[in-house]
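Hi D.,

Good news: the full-assembly prediction came through. Inputs first.
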Amino acid sequence: MKHLTEEQINEMADDALLPNASADLAQHISECLTCRAEISAMRSMAMRVRALPVSVQPPADVWPTISARIRNSAEPSEEKHKAFARRAPAWGWLAAAAVLLVMISSLVTTVVMGRRHADVTAVVASRPSTALANLAALSRREEGFRNTADELWAAVNARRDQLSPETVATVERTVMLIDAAILEAREALANDPNNTVIADMLSARYERKVDLLKRAAELLPQG
Amino acid sequence: MSSASHATASSVAQPVKSVSIALSISNVTDLVSRASAGDNAAFEELYREHAGRVYALCLRLSGDTSQAVELTQDVFVRCWERLGSFRGESAFSSWLHRLAVNVALSTHRGDSRRRKRVEAVAVLPDTPGLARSDSRDFDLEKAITALPAGARTVFVLHDVEGYRHEEIADLMGIAIGTSKAHLFRARRLLRKSLEPQ
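Then the structure:
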């Protein structure tokens, strides 16, 4: 049996294969343990990569140097500033739309969070006191992340038809991967509730999800 | 998909949390407007908001902390100089991110005297915030930094930053097939370097 090429494995892992090629390959993959393992390993690594932190704080002396350099640089021209100011109403409209979208999502978020909070509380109740405190603190952070992620997702989902199908598919796939990583970390933390490394990892994965959704929201046409 | 998408009109009764996102959009718009008029304090706020993401990008693209610092400074100076050309057609963060990629790639292409990349192991332990809380992720960061330049650039843009091959090819001035070849090589090398010894 001829195995998939490196390119096919990569594209299969990315869900980027052409539709007419997928049927034949899917047949092979369903029968070939080696290729399935390769694709799985590739997807596993992609999941790790997508869970990396998106933000790294630069050293403190970066800004003073920038500040000194821009003092010697020409200011943006007044004409261009006026051009930006003329565009401001579109941003105002966007802000108003965002308020409406997020307000609409809030009630649902509240209902969902109510259920989730009950789940977390149940887990917390079964732990010793220190672990209980750690888990309680984490559950509060989780609630904040979840609220933000749900609100952002609601805003994106409400206008998903304004994004390309490829973008929507990418966002959905990535959210799914991050959610799997979050679940994995939560399960690990349930077994080892005092492990601050796992707690940090869980927080980092939530941050990753929020950042992804923010970036998706930024892709929506404005105005 | 989250159930948050199934909204009802009655949810208008929950305005508190919603304001934060709208205000942040409004704030950024205001800051960009003020900074483009020459307001340094407004520009510093924009820097504080976006420096982490720009620095992370520069760090991963360059694989060198001192070069990442220089690139970050160049990106924000260029941003200051070009604020007037920001048309508001995309979010400011997207515009800045694209600018950062362009600055990083053009610096990489143009600097023939570019110093030899410092070994990843020597660089990353002094980089706060770079996936240090998880040793597995830290290993991954080190492995990314140790990739050959072309493979690393494509890998970071595609797998970390979410760019498509068409965009990467355009940004780097290479063929789409070359971009894919770099990516596949990068993934192969990463998997090899992350295999248990």
